[in-house]
Amino acid sequence: MATIYDVARIAGVSPKTVSRVLNGDAPVGKATREAVESAIAQLDYVPSNAARMMRSQRSGLIGLITGAISMSPEPTQPAGLPELFIVQGIQKSLANSGMTMMIADTGGVVEKAAPLIDTFLRHRVEGLIYVAEYHQKVALPAISDGTPMILANCFDDRGTPAILPDDWRGQHDLVARLVTAGHRRIGYLTLRPEIAAGRLRLEGYRAALQTGGIAYDAALVANCDLEGRDGETQLLWEAIDRMLRLSTPPTVFCCGNDKMALRVYGILRSMGRKVPTEVSVAGYDNYRVIAETLYPPLTTVDLPYTAMGVRAAQRLMAMISGETREEKGPTLVAGPVYWRDSVTELRPANVSLLKSVREE
Q1: Which one of 33, 41, 255, 303 is separated from 131 by 20 to 30 angstroms, measured CA to CA?
Q2: Are residues 264 and 317 in the same domain?
Q3: Based on the domain organization, do 343 and 205 belong to the same domain?
Q4: Distance between CA 179 and CA 79 in Å, rounded?
Q5: CA distance 229 to 87
Q6: Cis omega (within 30 of 0) on the bond before 276?
Q7: Stated pTM of the model
């Protein structure tokens, strides 16, 4: 028996558009309507009256699943709140849409997402957004009734529409700026390679070196990410000590995130090294509670969480309204480099070559 998804596939439209043609509850272009009606005739599709009645009644609800509420750190902890910032961006974007956002928290247990999705669908939400705590691959159940869904800060193997940080570009732009400032020996204290951000940022680092005519040197790269567990500081200390003992040591350390950079400041000072006059430091995230309060203030890359939330809400609303087809694959959102006093300019910067850089 043919389904609404079969009709959508033959007509080259989304299931939501097929639903609009069947229910007559929203305007549809003449060509699109004819394509849907032709597919219905070709497949001899007979819609479920019960489903049609249910879906024709707009609920005005958006379901959002996150772990931001239960997993947020204490206010005194020097950390960012990525999920919460994404949620705030979504809320800002939906504020004037006439939609009401319902939030469910996973408590940090990914397996709870599936029953929460079912609960939202029973409440006839018009769209769903799932927000992950960091850039990662997820496996969520398929939505059987055509309700549009957006993934924020994550992606899956089905090509569900996703909003992701452009980690490759962020690290590339930072390293390119360092090269422009005259740095040729750039140490990189990386995130663990198992996560998407770790792999993409290392690729961006290598690409920027290549563009700058600098050979990649594995001796200047070390994975120092233990997810904040005991031993990370010692791992960082050993990597920094080893690199500084090289015949040509690094003039700057790029850190996997701003929390790592905070530790690096302390390690360098314990070694009697001054930042940035003897060695420079750069981070990633632009966690302002760290970056703007460190002395000297930290050069870093912005992770555009709020902008990601806004884009997620905008893309979902466009899918709900039928303004755009349900495009597969991710939308990448890039953030600027924030150039602060933790990096020494070894030569005057060529401003005409700089892109997405904010001097502070």
Answers
A1: 255
A2: no
A3: yes
A4: 29
A5: 27
A6: yes
A7: 0.78
